Structures are given as C-alpha cells and as structure tokens.
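Cross-posted from the bioinformatics board.
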Amino acid sequence: MLAKRTSAAVSCVSNPLVGKVVGPRDLANETHNVERCFLDLRQLANAVISDELISLPWLGFITADPRRVEGRCTISALSDDTVIAEGDVIRIAPKARYVDVLYRRSANANALFVTERCTNFCVMCSQPPREVNDRWRITELTQVIDLIDRTEQWLGITGGEPTLLGEDLYHLIRACGSKLPTTALHVLTNGRRFAEHPYANQAQNVHHDVTWGIPLYGDVAHLHDYVVQHEGAFAETIRGLYQLARIGQKIEIRVVLVKDTLARLSKLASYIRWNFPFVTHVALMGLEPQGFARANYEAIWQDPADFASKLEDSVSILHNRGIRTSIYNLPLCVLPVSLWRFARRSISDWKNTYLDACAHCRVRDECCGFFSSATKHWISRAITPISDLREVSP
Amino acid sequence: MKFKSSKDYQGDEYRLLPIRFRRLPWERDRVFASSLSGQWTFLTHDELRRCIQRDRPPQQSLDDLESVGCLERSPEQHTFAPLLSQLRTRMARLTAGPALHLFVVSLRCDHSCGYCQVSRQSPDASRFDMSEETAQLAVERLFAWPSPTLTIEFQGGEPLLSFARVQQIVKSIVKRNGMEGRELRFVIASTLHHLDDERLEFCRKHHIQLSTSLDGPAELHNLNRPLPSRDSYERTIRAIQYARSALGHDAVSALTTLTRATLSKPEAVIDEYVRQGFSSIFLRPLSPYGFARRTQTRSAYTIAEFNEFYKRALKYLVQLNTVGTYIEETYATLILRMLLMPQSHGYVDLRSPTGAGLGTIVYNYDGKVYPSDEARMLAAMGDDTFCMGTVFQSVEDWYSSPAMRVLLSNGVSESTPGCTDCAYLPYCGSDPIDSYARSGEPAGHRPSSAFCRRHMSLFDLLVELLDRGDSDTQRVLESWVFRQPLHEILPHAVGAN
Amino acid sequence: MNDIIAVEFDTTIYPLDAIRRAVHWHIGEYYADLRIAGSIVTLELRPKDGTTSPTDFESTLKNSVLDELLRVQVRSEARGIHEALIRAALDGALGRNSNSEV
C-alpha cells in the first residue's frame, strides 16, 4: 500500500506546479518537454549529473541534497522516498509541505479525480461529497493528461459526480482520446444526468473506448433511492442507462453490497438480466470501510460468510446469460470456490493490505486482500488462510 | 450529516399496473403473475390477493410486483422506461412488415406421405408449377415492406423439381436487393432426393440453406413417408450427407412430423437426430390440414398423448445433454427464451398480433396470395376464405381484403376473450386460421381450442421446470436459452432467497 | 362422476360479472345455467359429453370466481395506464416522440 502523498520540503515555488518525474530510463526517451518535468536526481549516478544536464530548463528537481541545484525549484526530505517514482505525475504548491501524486506509472489503477461534488449521498460513500467550487481540478487535469504515459492501458475518471462538469466532462474525455489514443477510459458516474437526452447524445463518439460505470442498488425504486439518499435517483439512473444504451455506449453496472441491497440481490440480478442485457460488465463489490460507510456501519454491514449463497445465485443468473460478471473486494477465503474465477484483484494498491493470517495462504497472490482502512469489525469471521489447495478444488 | 432511513423512502400508496396471473397447477395456492411486457414472478395467491385488495400487503410482495412491472409505487420515484422499452421492441416488429416469404413453386412431388398437407400432384403435372410471370410479380411485392431482414423459403410439392423457377426467383431477388440492401436468407424445404452437383453449387453460391424432413429412424421415417422404392430414409440420409459436404454441416436442418407411430418412441427419434449430427429437434404436433385430415383416425393423437410424449422426450433430451451431447428442443427453447429474455423471435406461428399476413406471406404457384401456409392448405381443400388476393394486385389490396379484416379482428389475443386475462399471453400467439380450420370459427372459444390446450400445457410444463425442476434440467434448459455450453452454466443456489 | 355441479354465490361479495367471467373458462366442457334470487346466484354446470369433472371442481370454481374478482379490480385500476403505455410504446416504435414516458 503506497500513499499518494508524502510530506517534503519544497523550495522556490510561487505557483502550483504539475510535472512529470523523469529518471534514468526516461532521460533517454525525451517523451516530454523538460519544462514540464521534474528531474529525479536520486536515481542518477553522479557521473551523469553534469552542469549541462542541470542547466536545462527543468521544472524542478527531486533530490536528497538541494544544494546541488541552488536557486532552482527542489523537492527534498521526502518522508517516504518510495511515494514518488520515475514516470509519476506530481503536484507541488507554494507553502504546501507535501507532494501529491496525481498519476503513478507503477499503479495497478490510475484515476482522474474531477470533482468532490456529487448529486447522490450514498450511505456507504468512501469519498463523501463536498459542496465546493473545484473547477480548478479540470484545468489541472488537462495538464496531467499531457504527462500520462502514452502506453497506459486504461484510465479512470471519477469523483464525486463527473457529469456535474457538464460539457467540460466531454472536453476532458476528448482530450484523453487525443492525447492518449490507445488508453481506454472508465468513467464512474451515477448516470442520472444521462436521463437528459441532449446531454446523453453528446456521449456518442466522444471517445474510441469508454465504459460508463454506473451503480445500481436495487430492483425497486425505494431501495436504490435509500442507498443513494435521493428520491427519484433510481428513475433517473434507469432512464440514463437506456439513453446510453440507445447510443451504443459501453455500460458497466456496479453493485456495492450493502445489507439492504443484499436482501434482494438475486432479484436485482434478474432485473439487470431482463432489462439491461446489453451491459458489458457487472461488478458486485464488497464494502470499502471509508467515509460515510464508517458512520453507517450498522445499517450496511453484513458478513460475507452470510451472503455466499445469495452471491452464488446472483452470479449464476448473470453469468449464464453471458453477462461478464466480477466480484470485487471480497477475499477468496470468504467466497465459495465456485466463485473464485469471478473474484478480481480489485483494490488499488495504494490502499491495499493483507492480514498476518494471509502470510501462509496458498492463494494470497490471486486474492484482493483488504482495504488498509479495514478495522476488526469490517473483517469477516470466516477469514482463514487456504493451506491445502486440494481441499478446495471445484 | 443526516441520513434518512429506508422507511423514509417507502410510501404506503401504490397503483396496480396490468397484472395477469395463473394459479400453478402443481401448487394451487401459488400463482405465476406476469406484466404487460412479460416479466414475471411467483407469489402465493394470498400475497397477490392482499396486494390487489390492499389487505395488509406484504412489503416483499409489493417489491416483487414492482420489480417485474406489475405495480407503481411513488410516481416521483417510478419510471416506466423498462416497460416501454420492451413494449416498443415488440411493436417495432409490426412496422417492419412480413419478414418471411414463402414461395410454393410447384405442387409436384414424388412422395405420398400420409400426413401431407399439400395436396401433392404427380411429378409430371407441370400445370401445377408457378409461372415466370407470377414469380416476378411476387418478387416485386416482397420488397414493398421495410423489413431489414427477409427470409425467402421455397416449398412445394418438391421445389427441387422446379429448380429453374427457384433459380429465377433467387437471382431476381438478389438483383433487386442490390438497391435495397436488406439482409437475405434463403431456405429450400425439400426431401433433398433430387440434389445434384449443379443444384448444390447454386445453393452454395447464394448461401441457400436446406430444410428437410426426418421423422426418425428408418422404420418410422419410411412408414410416414412412403416411396414406391421404400427407401425414403436411406435416400434422405445420403442426401443430407451429400448436401453437407457441399454446403457445410449447418446448412441442413431437419423437421420431424409426429404421428401416432412416433409417439411411443421419442428416444428413437431423438437418437436418430443425434446420429445424424443435428443439434436441434423440433417436436411439433400434427395439424389438421391437407391429407393429414383424411388420414386422421390412423395418425391422430390427443393432446394428453402428445403431452406424455413430450415430457418423455424432454427428459431424454436433458439426459443426453448432461452427458455431453448438445441437442435442444426448438419449441421449448423458443418459449423459454420469451420467459427469460424480452426478445422477439422469428417464429410467425406464435405471435400476437397474429403472424399470418403480418409476419409472413405465401405466394402460391397459381398466383394467389395467402397470409400463411395453413391458409393455403385450407384453400387446397376447397376453402378459400383466407385468400388475400393475387400477385396481380397491390399490397394495399391484400391488406384491405376480407381475409385480412378477419385476421385483424380475430388475431389480437389482447382483445380476444379467453386470452386477454391469460398470464401466458405475452409468450403466446393468436392463430385465427388454426381456430377456423378446427372449429369453423376464427375466434371460437379459445380456452378449449387445441391451440390453447397444447400451448397451455407446454407453458405449464416449462414454468414448472423453472419453478422446481431438478438442477440438471434447469441447467440444460438455460444452456439452450442462452446458447452456452452446459459446463458454462452455473447451478442456482438452493435457498438463496 | 358426471353429475351436475351446483354452487351458490353471494353477489354482495362476488359480483355477477366475476361469476360470468369465471364460467366462461369452462363453457367448452360444460353447459352453464345461472339462476338469480335476490343476492344469491346459483350456478349449475352440466358436463358435456366426454367431460369428467375433477373431484375438487367446486372449490376450483369458487377460486375461479375469486380470481375474476381480483381481475376486475386490477382492470379498473390499471385501465388508464394500460392504454397510455400502449400508446406511448406505439409512438416510440413508430419513431414519434420517443423521449417521454407516459
């Protein structure tokens, strides 16, 4: 688990700066202008660090010893040296004593965070919304997109609710399409705004490979509306789904497994199968113990050991129909073996951890493990290392 | 921050949407309830009654009914989008016009099948051939409707005995389609006995599929389909292999017609289909037309006898599938698909509004035009009630014919007493011609009609299997419906709900 | 047994309409006779040739009438929306005004 922020000493900065970290490997490649890059001196052999190299108009330097680059912008005294690495896109700001990583080359997943505002208020939201004017994020993100590796296979767009950006969301997506022509996009949205035809129509041809990931928490309105705490959200989301389908968009339905949703999970699977057979993927997701989820623990938590058969039934309903289905955020030991093939290593590495008990587990490497925010009462009573694979062959 | 409880999102008010229901014959205090679009759920009769009569309705039942489109709770929270989407899909088919066009190119045939519905003529009687002019006019009419896909099927008699006419029609349609851009499918329904290299090459060139009759193993097939040389079966098998070698394995399909002789031997018929490498079998009962009626006492069987046969056949098919032989029963798959997916299907005989005239048109050798094959057979027996006109007339003339008026006023099950409240209505069809042929009336008393009783028992059987079939059977049925190999079909967990 | 089956209904609970509709399901196999005396309706069903009544036919009949009563209620509540839905669906299928719901 690698944090996205580390405290540091930052000098000679008068504006927020976004730049690409360049190290020994990328030096030769020159994929970006030096004016947009931070040269990472930590990895470079002394022989390479010539005056000539340093005199180039780098944005700044990452170094253990700022004196080598007097008068230039430096980032030093990182409390965790591993947080920033070659290829990452970082942000520093005047007076801020930390560095933020906005894109990490080595991460298993990267996302563009577009806004903290949201139109839902989900009871288990791991990223509680805030009513702030954060339009500055979009501006910053257009710089970030320029600096992301062109080889990046996919990129998330998330928030808050990205469609609150209106047309700017489409501009951002188009920018991704042109700057990163082989990168697939995955936009997390509640889908409600797509109930508006003119807005939905603009999604047509906006990107060569975009999937819209839309949560659905129930097959009946009151259930979904309760989970997202907004009356009418279900109706808008369903209409939005049909609008996106009408224009041939790729759609993923995401179901976070809160207690009330679990009570009708098989019916929800049947509902998806009947009404949205065109979805390209369904993700059934274990809870992330962060944000609002913590406050609503009693209302939302159910031990995975107690919903295994519901999960099996729901997966079979979708899978048998040919709908690609995945299980996220549930460790293998709490899943019936028949469902292991659907479980994914879904937890972003920067918030991923394993328990001591996992050290001797034979399937640790295939298992998603836990959220680093998980405390005892978020961990199933059924967690146990798998010691003998023969016992569990399906 | 303040969170509302789930109760805050649940009102007490609700409005019923159209619900149709049927008590389960195998458990009469439970019902099958379906919505306008054919989505359905099980619930107890008491739960349904309490929901309808507002007598302490159980929350779960209200949820289950709302989920399948049978009731609307808070209007602010409700959306009709799913119901509308499905209804629109079904209706879109109507505006496309007939997609299946049957050309009866000749009545000449060299077989003398007891159940023949066609009033065959001797192989030399060329006055029973379709003329070039008739064929050309029919081709022009075909494109009058906008259907993006067109299936053209050649029937007879034996179409291969009039192959020149078949060729003319195919070439003419392909040429005309150059401007139209429809997706074309050609099928020839034939004994296949008169195939030769030249005919096969023509079929290969135009991707023509062949549909033949295979009634079972030799003794059954030859009994049903006598030739003077008594070797119809052997010739058919040889011909199937011959055709496949030129056109590919899947270019040949087979239909079976069941007579009393076959009813006691479902396994033998199925085994024959497996032996010949077919992956589907269509177990359809006899209809009362053509020669079939004359030989009725010998070949006929009751609905009850057919049901017994069918259950046995289904059981045997499930067995075969579980040991690795994929073979589906076509009719069961068609119906199950409607129960498990909101799809239209191409089978014109099970539709409302009726497929006759609206989904299919038959161009007879003599230039007369009929709304279905059954209507043409009735005419061959002397009753021209359902003739829509001739190829010399326009499509508008056909659609304003008395025949069409009868079809439209009797061919919509939603407005037919006896059908209008049936829970299986979304999956069933209307067939006024069948009703007329059997009872003399296009409407008649539907619940006691052979069509209804046959389908009702089939729906009941399949719904019962969905409700409480064993796991193997349910998995096999799902593999047919979803077109997946059996090993990909996961079992449903017991007690999950 | 091919006897006549006679069942009484109280029309304050089971309206005549429901009884008639229930009978309609069976007129293929039975001759039906309805006698009305005040609020009591006596329904007599005489089996046609070839019809054998199941042993619990009387309770099946009563269930049928109850079911027709439920259907009457569904129809009266859902009629308006039924028509509106069909109309909206047709409009959509014909490419007219497919944006709105009912």
